[in-house]
Every structure is written in C-alpha cells, then in structure tokens.
C-alpha cells in the first residue's frame, strides 16, 4: 500500500487535518488518522501537522515495500529506515542534512509512541527507540531532584550527526536597505515587527489591533505594562491560519520607530474600504482579497520580493534570527532573549550563542602580529 498526504477540511468548522490515504482507494490510514487528530487536539501548529504526517507516511510506505510490519518494527528495522532516509536524495538532488534526517525520525518515533499509548503497538516497540542518558547541561531553574535522579532523561537511540551552523541573518546595512525598499507602510511595519521584535511570522500575522498597546500608559486598556508594546496571544480561530507556535501569551516591547510605522500603516489602511471591519493588523491592500488578513504565503512572497529588489535573499524567519543575534551580540542576557523570543527551552536560544567565523578571526587577530608570528 502506497500512502499519500491529503488535506481534509471539516465542513462544519473549516479546520484542516492532514491525512494519509491509500493512493488507489483513498481510504485513510486509521492509526495515522488518529495521530493527525491527536496533533491537532494537542495544539500543534498547522505547519507541524503538515510536516509530521508525510514523514510518517514515508515510514509506513517504506515498511510496506520492504515487507516489514510497522507494528512490530525492531531497532534494526528503524536503523535500515534511517539509512534509507540518509541515502535518498531530496528534490534538489542532494542528500538530506542530518537535521532533515532527524526531523523525519522524530516524527516517526512520536507516531510509534502515540500508537503504543493507544494500544496499537506493543510498548516494547516504542521503548526500543530511546535509552536513559545523563543530562549534562540542565536548563535554568531545572530541579535535579533528590540525589540528582531527574538528571537522567530518555534520549532517542537513532540520531544522525548534525552540523551546527549559525542562523542566516541580515547585517545592519541590509536591515536598513530592506526597510527602505518596502513599497508600502504595511510592509515596513511588518518588517519592523519581525526584525526588532523577533516575532515569528505566524505571530505577526495573527496580531489584532487590540494587541497593539502603543501609548506610554495602557492602564485604561487593563494592561499594567508601561511603554509601547504588543501582545502575542495564542488563538486557534485565526481566519488566515496564523498561529503562535509556543501556545503561550507574551509581551514584546516596541521601539518608537515601530510606533511611527504603525501610525503610517493605519493611515494607509483607512484608504482600503474593505478593511474597515477587519480587526487584523496586517491585511491585503489591493486585489480580490483586499481587506482580508494576510496569509503566510502572502507575507513570504512580499519579503522575498523586497529582498530580491535589494539584491540578497530575505525570508520571514531570517528577520527573527537577526533580532536574536543582535540582542546576544549587544550583550543582552540569554534568559532575556529567551523570554523575548518566546522559547520554552534555553536550548532553543543557545543556537544564537555559537561563535561565528568573524568572531574566531577577531579572537586570533587580537593576539597581535608578534604573538601570531
């Protein structure tokens, strides 16, 4: 049985569920369907659901082709599947990176663990996928327990080596260039919120006007936070499908430049009659969807076009990387950066602490020509 991924839309709620169906009969795979519903019910983002389901389908299809019963898969079978993923070129004709391989294994392991909890597979199948490991670096505030027994965690047995690369960022001149190249006040505001506030694109597109507190004192709005700021609120009913990944509310301060750009955007937005009844901050300004909230696809295309006009590559998440890197290199404490970014774990923030090539070169050059000779 060869499986393919299909998008199912609820006729009553409009919610999207990604399913694995038989390529010939279009019959949904029952356990994969339960897993997809679990991901949605657990509040996973649509992007996570869309990524996990095809990876599970790849594993199930591989098992069918090799005559392996996925419900009784052994560690050796999982090792062969890992080799298969590592040796199968991507659409670009290149072998996948270690990060890509691990993303596939993560989805499959989570699927098998879910099936074990549901009784679809024996618990031994899921238990083989992890082993006890000592937690060498405990996150801030972690309670090791009496005698440090909590320092032992379950880690995945199969894992591909990953090459740690610093996230792609923009330089200060490039940030200025990309802001100047934006043709609309909306685009300048969007870029400003991303590159100075460190928001994820889904968080920015989910902003409502009630989330923007730009006065020196917002007490009349029931908010105790002083100064200009915005609120990232997790919402499940965004018309454009935007989601706050972490699922937690947080406050992000805004610089005065963002306040001015928001005012410019409101003046521009008032000229779009269709936007009068829309509470979203970022809306389409023209065309058949004028006045409707921007989607991720809209925003991605806008930012990529602006980058192309500037002569370099620009993507939405690159703005967030730029904000985080500037904070770290500006001396902001990692725990503050973690809070600003909305990271649940300090491990997610640690990627911005890695030394870059220019840092290594500067460290050597500091020794002076006499020592380096």
Round the mean pLDDT to the nearest integer and report it.
Answer: 87
- Give the amount of beta strand, in percent: 5-15%
- The count of helical stretches stands at 15
Structural class: mainly alpha
Question: Poorly predicted ranges (pLDDT <50, ≥5 residues)?
Answer: none
* Alpha-carbon distance between the two ends: 66 Å
Strand arrangement in the largest pleated sheet: 5-6-7
Strand tally is 7
Order of helices and strands: EEHHHHHEEHHHEEEHHHHHHH
Largest sheet: 3 strands, antiparallel
Shape: globular
Alpha carbon gyration radius: 24 Å
User: Helix proportion of residues, in percent?
Assistant: 40-55%
Write the layout of secondary structure elements.
Elements: E1 3-9, E2 16-22, H1 30-41, H2 46-66, H3 75-87, H4 98-118, H5 123-127, E3 130-134, E4 152-156, H6 172-180, H7 185-197, H8 201-205, E5 212-213, E6 229-232, E7 250-253, H9 256-269, H10 296-310, H11 316-329, H12 334-341, H13 346-349, H14 357-365, H15 368-372
Antiparallel strand pairs: 1-2, 3-4, 5-6, 6-7
Helix pairs in contact: 1-2, 2-4, 6-7, 7-9, 7-11
